[in-house]
């Protein structure tokens, strides 16, 4: 690196700074649309389903949940969410369960 004196202050002279490209410009520069579909590229590779278990979230707050109410089957994360789940009427509980496509019906 070279230094250059400018107005009493030494500045480090560096090479030309790198210019970064966004993903859209990279994809258009690679001309993936002109390639054969049989060639594996970043655009046409299908990913297999995940081997990790699905994450479970609190039905009340939306935070990652560790617990599930055995009566209403609603997932919760804290004491306050548990109280709220227990205070909900049956039709609201069924709406929460329908949102996450649970097949449990409250009797």
TrEMBL record:
<keyword id="KW-0805">Transcription regulation</keyword>
<dbReference type="GO" id="GO:0031011">
    <property type="term" value="C:Ino80 complex"/>
</dbReference>
<keyword id="KW-0539">Nucleus</keyword>
<keyword id="KW-0804">Transcription</keyword>
<protein>
    <submittedName>
        <fullName>INO80 complex subunit C</fullName>
    </submittedName>
</protein>
<dbReference type="GO" id="GO:0006338">
    <property type="term" value="P:chromatin remodeling"/>
</dbReference>
<feature type="domain" description="Vps72/YL1 C-terminal">
    <location>
        <begin position="56"/>
        <end position="85"/>
    </location>
</feature>
<dbReference type="InterPro" id="IPR029525">
    <property type="entry name" value="INO80C/Ies6"/>
</dbReference>
<dbReference type="Pfam" id="PF08265">
    <property type="entry name" value="YL1_C"/>
</dbReference>
<dbReference type="InterPro" id="IPR013272">
    <property type="entry name" value="Vps72/YL1_C"/>
</dbReference>
